[in-house]
Write a structure and sequence with these properties.
single chain; 2 strands
Length: 284
């Protein structure tokens, strides 16, 4: 129950604060919000680094987290037209090129044999979660970005909290028996699924002055967000179990860490960014 109340407090306190950052403080292309996303990318990279170090795998301890934070920052600068559109692709090529150079700069054989795991772990730390967070930054470039962001975050966060609550009430019954997350239950999945669908359908009515979305389209979008949220949660659980750690937190120890707080967003953000403009007609 302790973890549940931590989730509730996160939702009750953090979500309204996030709404304030998104709506009344949305100046300069949502600068404050995107600074927060960049900070989360950096902290998430630190947690990923912690997982690799737990497995005693070499990783570029300083370079990878810092460069990870540049990915959402570059996308923000693209949205501000400070950098040309598509610059992120070029920047990723530059960063990977730098990693390749570091890989071959060795002077001892015992160091050379560690270069492949060093490169592999450093690339993972670079991209997870930072690359997926760039899609959240891109949502701020949609029409009515503040509404789109709230729409997206509510659908994912309510899925998370309701699924967790239903799982607690079920008390281990109807478990899905998933190796990567043994405590996941069918009833939790169903309630989380319903939360995402219900939030998107409700939002299609609440925000009809900004977006026009049919009920079938809302059900489709909510259903897909529920599935990607679930998959993202399982992915993060698999990473932690692979490293045999329960809490990857660097600054959010006890809550599971930054990765535990954002795992449901990672796969959902690209899906939302692609589908939302197709399924919701913007009202001028």
């Amino acid at each position: 129950m302790k973890n549940f109340w931590a989730r509730v407090l996160t939702l009750v306190i953090f979500f309204p604060l996030l709404a304030v950052v998104i709506v009344p403080l949305g100046f300069l292309h949502h600068l404050i919000f995107n600074v927060l996303v960049t900070a989360v990318a950096f902290l998430g990279a630190l947690e990923m680094r912690k997982m690799f170090e737990k497995k005693k795998m070499p990783v570029m301890r300083v370079v990878s987290p810092i460069l990870a934070a540049t990915l959402p920052a570059v996308v923000y600068l693209e949205g501000m037209d400070i950098l040309p559109e598509g610059f992120l692709t070029f920047w990723i090529a530059v960063v990977l090129g730098a990693f390749f150079v570091i890989t071959v700069c060795v002077n001892r054989k015992e160091i050379l044999i560690q270069r492949l795991p060093l490169l592999a772990s450093s690339v993972v730390v670079l991209f997870i979660p930072a690359f997926f967070l760039t899609f959240i930054v891109r949502i701020t470039s949609l029409k009515h970005p503040d509404i789109a962001l709230l729409f997206f975050l509510a659908a994912v966060f309510f899925n998370d909290i309701l699924a967790y609550l239903a799982g607690l009430i079920a008390r281990g019954k109807t478990r899905l028996n998933l190796l990567v997350s043994p405590n996941k239950s069918l009833i939790g999945f169903i309630f989380g699924f319903a939360a995402s669908v219900g939030t998107v359908v409700a939002g299609s009515f609440i925000f009809k002055k900004f977006f026009v979305m049919s009920v079938p389209a809302a059900i489709l979008l909510g259903s897909l967000l529920a599935l990607t949220s679930f998959a993202g949660d399982l992915f993060e659980s698999a990473l932690k179990r692979s490293c045999q750690i329960k809490d990857s937190g660097v600054v959010m120890a006890g809550r599971g860490g930054i990765m535990d707080a954002i795992d449901s967003l990672l796969l959902s953000a690209p899906l939302f960014l692609f589908l939302f403009p197709l399924l919701a007609a913007s009202v001028p």
